[in-house]
From TrEMBL:
<protein>
    <submittedName>
        <fullName>MBL fold metallo-hydrolase</fullName>
    </submittedName>
</protein>
<dbReference type="InterPro" id="IPR001279">
    <property type="entry name" value="Metallo-B-lactamas"/>
</dbReference>
<feature type="domain" description="Metallo-beta-lactamase">
    <location>
        <begin position="113"/>
        <end position="308"/>
    </location>
</feature>
<dbReference type="InterPro" id="IPR024884">
    <property type="entry name" value="NAPE-PLD"/>
</dbReference>
<dbReference type="Pfam" id="PF12706">
    <property type="entry name" value="Lactamase_B_2"/>
</dbReference>
<dbReference type="InterPro" id="IPR036866">
    <property type="entry name" value="RibonucZ/Hydroxyglut_hydro"/>
</dbReference>
<comment type="function">
    <text>Counteracts the endogenous Pycsar antiviral defense system. Phosphodiesterase that enables metal-dependent hydrolysis of host cyclic nucleotide Pycsar defense signals such as cCMP and cUMP.</text>
</comment>
């Protein structure tokens, strides 16, 4: 009887617990089945991307995780600038504000875009479990944000697609632009299907003069319910009247960066993942040195390192990503922008944040 009850509980959680997400509609499934990226029932990367680990590798990783890293988190809360909604709305120039990890608010060609919004305290489907945010506060709560024209999603992992954040945002967002399959999660969480646009790699959508292009990344998807590879993962190109921006999402290094640069570069600004790497998942996350190479491949003029500064999802020290990125940028003569969380970066300005605030 206990086994039956446990099995029933697991079934109910997997299929009905809202943060785990939902299934794609029939129309979405039709698009998925037609995608060149969807092979043998799953989305695939452009090149082979092994993610199979031996028992020994898994055991070693578990031991390291249990031991932890004494420098894996900041000793205290991080400095956070308060978001000035009035200034953001009134300033004519294109601008971007980093909220930590991969959450960014930008304005380009007057279009307000919120990227991978994760405003929760934990990057996890269960409150009070999983990686906890470093900062005690954010630059702004969702209720304090302006009306958002577009929410842009890279993939459905918990540190990029957050149930609680989407539930709070859905009433103040005009359109969601997402990779194939993501609409199933959003509609389960109450987003109107008419406000969701799903794109395959190389497809475009233009909103008020700002063009979004879904471009390849080297990663994977899934929310832990046996759905690995059921939805697509993307990087994104955003091209406006004055500014060309590239957002990497999560990605291992690969030839897609040069392909994107050749098609859509050069970029005035790149937002490239630089943290949460490990030798055991080198195919799906880049080291900082690879991130700087990716920036060169896409022909980025200036780069903001992201995917760090909020959650510990790997075994390296929390400052390792930015320290290695700065050194690599100096060696490659690359302009690396290092804003504090909440600090506004004006795209196209001759001056950019460059302080070592994490020290």
């Amino acid at each position: 009887m206990i086994v039956i009850i446990a099995a029933l509980a697991i079934f109910l959680i997997v299929y009905f617990y809202p943060p785990l997400g939902g299934k794609s509609s029939a129309e979405s499934q039709r698009k998925i089945q037609q995608s060149p990226q969807f092979v043998d029932g799953k989305f695939r990367n452009q090149i082979p991307t092994p993610m199979d680990y031996s028992l020994k590798e898994t055991a070693d990783a578990l031991i390291k995780t249990v031991k932890g890293n004494p420098n894996g988190r900041p000793k205290g809360s991080l400095p956070v600038d308060s978001f000035d909604a009035k200034a953001f709305a009134e300033k004519a120039e294109d601008q971007v504000v980093w909220f930590g990890h991969s959450t960014l608010l930008l304005k380009a060609s007057g279009v307000k875009v919120l990227i991978d919004p994760v405003f929760g305290t934990y990057a996890s489907p269960v409150p009070y479990f999983g990686p906890k945010r470093y900062s005690d506060k954010l630059p702004a709560e969702i209720e304090e944000l302006p009306e958002i024209d577009v929410v842009l999603i890279s993939h459905d992992h918990y540190d990029h697609l957050d149930y609680g954040s989407i539930r709070k945002l859905k009433g103040k967002v005009k359109q969601f632009i997402v990779p194939l399959g993501i609409s199933g999660h959003l509609t389960k969480w109450g987003v109107d299907p008419d406000r969701i646009k799903e794109l395959d790699w190389w497809e475009e959508e233009t909103v008020q003069g700002l063009t979004f292009v879904s471009t390849p990344a080297r990663h994977f998807s899934g929310r832990g319910r046996g759905d690995s590879g059921a939805t697509l993962w993307s990087s994104w190109v955003m091209t406006g009247k004055e500014t060309n921006i590239y957002y990497s999402g999560d990605s291992g290094y690969g030839p897609h960066f040069k392909e994107i640069g050749d098609k859509y570069g050069p970029f005035d600004l790149t937002l490239i993942e630089t943290g949460q790497y490990d030798e055991q998942w080198a195919n799906i996350h880049m080291t900082p040195e690879e991130s700087l190479q990716a920036n060169q491949d896409v022909q980025g003029k200036r780069m903001i390192p992201i995917h760090w500064g909020a959650f510990t999802l790997a075994l390296h020290s929390w400052t390792d990503p930015i320290e290695r990125a700065k050194l690599a940028a100096e060696q490659r003569n690359t302009v690396l922008i290092t804003p504090r969380i909440g600090e506004t970066v004006t795209i196209g300005s001759p001056e950019y944040p460059s302080s070592k605030w994490w020290e």
